[in-house]
Amino acid sequence: MKRLLIALLFMMGSSVYAQEWMLKTNLFYDATTTMNLGFETRLSPKWTLDVSANWNPWSFSDNRKWKQLSFQPEARYWFCESFNGHFLGAHLLGGIYNMGNWNTDFTFLGTDFGQLQDYRFEGWMLGAGIAYGYQWLLSKHWSVEAEIGIGYVYSRYDKYECPHCGDLLEENKPHNYFGPTKAAINLIYVF
Q1: Single pTM value for the model
Q2: How many CA atoms lie within 13 A of 158 on its CB side?
Q3: Helices marked H in the chain — which ranges?
Q4: Least packed by Cβ within 10 Å: which of 123, 124, 165, 190?
């Protein structure tokens, strides 16, 4: 996390013109107590690079876990001009997770979230996707953007017997996922 912040500060320092870079937070992640920070910089009049990091280190009551650390760089093409209006993005994503003890009883696009009630999963993921978004200028320094993306994620995980403790049941098990990979309502500060 320290290296990410140093890299972000370095990239911010490399831009000296107004509206060449911005900081953002995803309000969806904020609502789930996931700390997040995004940085975006202009590469050309219609291209930008967006890099976001998300971190949820918390264990909740009754030892419920939804811990994760993830990164998601994205190249964006803007239809009009960068930081304004419609854009398309291509993103990568990667991270680690530790989840369990959640009373969820549903399956979504082939992933059985009901297993989170009786098992704990710890692993890593890598993926890629495409996205569409729109950004609204509110003032000289403030903007809001909405974005949705789909893609593919490959994951490997260890499965444990119970959410609290438990013996290792499966090791280094692969999982493939295709579906939503990005959903954001970002509050943005433009420099």
Answers
A1: 0.82
A2: 11
A3: 2-13, 27-31
A4: 165
